[in-house]
Structure formats: C-alpha cells, structure tokens
Amino acid sequence: MEYSKEQEKIIAQRLVEYLQRNKKVITYSNLSAKRDVKIEPNGFDEYLKNIGEKCRQNNFPLLSSIVINYHWQYPGEGFYKAFYPELVKADDVTKRAKAREDQERVFEFNEWFKFLELYAR
C-alpha cells in the first residue's frame, strides 16, 4: 500500500485515543485492528517512524514507543533503527529498558492534543 499522510494522521489519533483510555502499550496487531487503520501489523514502520520524528522535532515524548511486538514486549527493529541505531544489535533486556524509559515519558505526558494539532497544519 502506498504511504498516506492521512493514514499517518489516523494512526496518531488512534494512538492518542488509546493512551487517554489505557496508559499502556499496544501491540502492532491491536493497532492494526483499530477503526480506520488500514495497515497490516507488519506495515507500520514508516508510519511510526514519521510519527516519532514529528514527536522529536516538536519536543514530545516518542509516541511510537508504545507500539510493541507481542512476543518481545518492546518495539520492533524499525523503532531502534530510526531512534536508537546504537541499540539495533543490543540484547532484549537493553532494548526493553530503553523502550520503558520512553513509554513512561509518553504515559506521563498529558498534552497529546497539542501533538495532534500538528496534523491540522
């Protein structure tokens, strides 16, 4: 499927909605099942990378860190390639610890509506 900025916006909205209700991580499969998300679980790399880059450029916590692989319980390799290339070959414990740091910042942040406003521009 061709990349869609509209689909990126929908994914960001669904993640923020999920956060507001749950304050916990979500698997790629569960995100894929959200309404209006038309991406297979293994097709999120570019979308989550762009959402994460938008977070970094605007001093928000890395929202994409809350999307995890069910079996590993941390984000996929694309997350580490994009944001922590030095950890791509790291062990599971190290990757999980780094993801938890980012996830805690995401859970503590309460102004995600400001992030979604970036998509209105």
Short overview:
55% of the residues lie in helices and 3% in strands.
Sequence of secondary-structure elements: HEHHEHHH
**How far apart lie the N and C ends?**
25 Å
β-strand amount:
under 5%
Strand order of the largest sheet: 1-2
Structural class: mainly alpha
Main sheet, how many strands, which sense, barrel? 2 strands, parallel
Number of helices: 6
The counted number of beta strands is: 2
Overall morphology:
globular
Low-confidence stretches: none
Oligomer: single chain
Rg: 13 Å
Q: Which percent bin holds the helix content?
A: 40-55%
Can you give the mean pLDDT?
94
Fold blueprint:
Elements lengths: L4 H18 L3 E2 H5 L12 H13 L9 E2 L8 H7 L8 H17 L3 H6 L4
Parallel strand pairs: 1-2
Question: How would you describe this protein?
Answer:
There is one protein chain. With 121 residues, the chain is mainly alpha-helical. Strands 1-2 form a two-stranded parallel sheet. Helix 3 runs parallel beside helix 4. The two termini are 25 Å apart.
Q: What key phrases describe this protein's structure?
A:
globular; 3% strand; mainly alpha; 121 residues
